[in-house]
């Protein structure tokens, strides 16, 4: 996402990022038809069924991640795919650090091509997507921005976590939407109001304006294996869907203060191959001397294929920008591409920013397989 958008909060005094505490555990409970085991990592606990049927069964299809913040239950991965992406990388990474301030790990691929194709199809079909629009001030003029790609996001910054949900305390288990998984303060365990737009809480700043959403199981499997593969910790998962070459992301850095000074961002590609361009930021000093197209300090093009992963770390975000440019001509319609980034947001500003610019307040869309396009998702009325 363009830094112009993501850095808006910086202008409104988001506090400087603090070091995360070891005890800052985000707890995510998901409801399954047959919970069998619990796996714990430094930041998430997920209860899930480890029974591996040899074929696709009815109970497998009945497994969903359910949370009040989701527009609809989100299907779990098929077992075979889950097993494959629990054990990554498919191939060791190479370091790319041969230019000033650049520090990348490039897994080519990170996920086998076959599993990447399945994961692409699965996520495009099962996740809720948004086409976010918003206004910014550009040179004193109010400008309307239409995000040129589909987006969705899950996660919560280190200052809060999702409370373990006890089905008995949240009503009938047979109603999937009764599951609450409240947001609570990491230190005190006290509930934090969410979705406080246009309410008194918004003014007193006690609540989240956003409605944070736990990382669903299908992405959490990948989040956990990516933590293991990179040695980094992540609490946010941003997803971009580029339907065609007309969808893009312009040059930006993911260098917001809420990510801390040396953020590690794992960026995974699925589906169509797209060029990932990087260029060193122009020197700040002499105004007028360097323009934004200045690549004298270095540039790089990675033609990211399905299953590839780039870990951007160290001084990279502070000094480099990256983009996925539009592409036209014969390659414009060679299939969509999904990009998943895992990040670690340290403070509330990260949560507010990510939901504002990746979910927004517009309609929910879901993939329509027959029409091969995103269509507005209609909520089925409860009986
Ligand atoms: O799609 C990509 O590879 C890059 C996405 C990106 O830079 C972002 O979401 O910040
Ligand atoms: Fe980015």
Automatic annotation (TrEMBL):
Bias-annotated ranges (Basic and acidic residues): 278-287
Residues that coordinate or bind 2-oxoglutarate: 240, 242, 252, 322, 337, 341, 343
Low complexity composition bias: residue spans: 38-54
Binding site for substrate: 255
Any one GO biological process: DNA alkylation repair
Region (Disordered): 32-54, 167-204, 278-302
Composition bias, Polar residues: 167-176
Annotated GO MF terms: broad specificity oxidative DNA demethylase activity; cytosine C-5 DNA demethylase activity; ferrous iron binding
Matches recorded under PROSITE patterns: FE2OG_OXY (PS51471)
Residues covered by the Fe2OG dioxygenase domain: 233-346
Protein's name according to its UniProt entry: Fe2OG dioxygenase domain-containing protein
